[in-house]
Write a structure and sequence with these properties.
The protein is of the alpha+beta class and 105 residues long. The protein has one domain. The chain has 3 helices and 4 strands. Strands 1-4 form a two-stranded antiparallel ribbon. The longest helix is centred in the middle third of the chain and has 18 residues.
Length: 105
Amino acid sequence: MPERFLDQEGQLRSDILDPQLLVYGYGRRSCPGRHLAQSSLFITIAFLLHTQDILPRLDQFGAPILPKGNMAHRIVSHPEGLEFRVRVRSRQAETLIQSDCAESV
Ligand code: HEM
């Protein structure tokens, strides 16, 4: 639900902190690879979302195991107990994934 980061006018909410302000360090020794890292992450995530559905894992009765919404608050916080399965979106997406894999070998 990416729209949760937007306010009523469709602008980025001012109370949302930008993770980039911290994760790449700051000052004179901040990460010089941040732009490459951001672009790589963007293209990787876009490719995943374009070609695959990320769905909740199913239990033994075929019911989805939904996350409880608990967060692990460590150096980087992340959702806990997030069990998922991945489903290729289409035959065309499958061909795209295979050609991408073949190119990277
Ligand atoms: C998600 C990916 C990455 C993260 C989270 C990350 C994070 C960091 C952090 C926290 C630092 C230390 C900054 C400081 O001391 O204040 C750093 C330094 C550095 N990073 Fe990255 N980095 C990433 C990717 C990359 C990439 C792709 C490259 C190169 C292509 C790179 C090259 C460097 C170099 C050379 C330094 C040392 C800078 C210095 O000491 O002057 N990093 N990075």
